[in-house]
# Entry
Amino acid sequence: MVAVALFVGLGVSTVYRAGPHTLGGKPWGSRVHRTDFTVETAAGSAVLNGTDIYQAHNVRGWYYIYPPLFAIVMVPFALMSTFWAALAWYLLSVIFVAWAVKMCVPLVKTTLNFEGDPFVLYVLPLLLVMLPLMSALARGQATPALLWLFTAGLFYAWKGQDWRGGVCFAGGILLKVFPVVLLAYFVWRKRWRFVAATLAATAIGALVVPSAVYGWQGNIDYLKKWVSVIGKPALETESERADNPLYGQLLSSQLPRNQSLSAVLTRLTGNPNARWIGMAVGVIMAAAILLVGLRVSAGNEIYILSAAVVWMLLIPPVSWSHYFLLLLLPLPALVVTAITAPNKVVRQVAGGALMLFAVLSLGLGGSRAAQAYGPLCWGGLGIWGALLFAAARSPSPGGSGGFGLRVRSRS
# Structure
């Protein structure tokens, strides 16, 4: 009953925030339009009208920031009224999240040979990311779609279905771009078919499909504009970004919901050069994953992949709080470890990291003032460290492997 009430209540809130609407001749909904969803539908309308998608914005002045393909995906929603479009997107997003969890649990259960009640794996990780989840759903974000694409890519890779997984993973890259850094993991593990499928699908999704709608040159112009207005400025210094019209919406490191390591360090120190410290820490984290990964057994590979997912969330210049929904793969792995790891110290470290994340995410993550201090960032670092510790100190659980040699031999 609690889940049903939450589902209904959040759905009403999501549609309300996309208002104002007119129902039965009467206005209903938020007067200040507290949603990002109408930015995407505005881009869908721009596709229909043949106008510039990067000039599309909602009534609050928030501009479309995704690559060109997603604007085409949003065309069906642009054809609906905002009320029905917001409701349809909410229902679809809930399906995406539920489906992603349904893929994560068997993956973790099998790779770590977990024979206990799977209920805790379905419920506890969702509770831990409840605030990012509610934020993504209520604001009509594309993150639930990213979660599904990303998780499906990893799930099918685990099953040895590299081409299907590569297509899904490419969808995540075409939506949010930053998942591309995790492709380095599959290069490292020599999953060449998965890498080839991802690159091929990304090229088709970036060049071929949009060109059928915008024309070849029109699509190239859009890609160049995305790079110049969004992609390149995200990597520039704070002073270089300041003149960008998207600075206050996207690029400022002072935005509390940005939980990337570089942004959090910049806010805490007040020094724009702190971003370089964040980048250096990211390199050290990558080296640590590599070092532990070279020694890990095939049965513990899920820990290495999970640590790489956390790293992927922390190192971009922009990592919104709702991106931490992608922890729905690393968190179940750590839950299983806290319950079943034969090494007591490993169990304690895993349990401690989960409790720390719970305090930071649930206790502080909902406060705008507290967000400025990076609770999800520091909680994510704790999860990352516990995963690497488990990989280094745990004997192989004897499951079906993970994303290493056993999977490749089946594919």
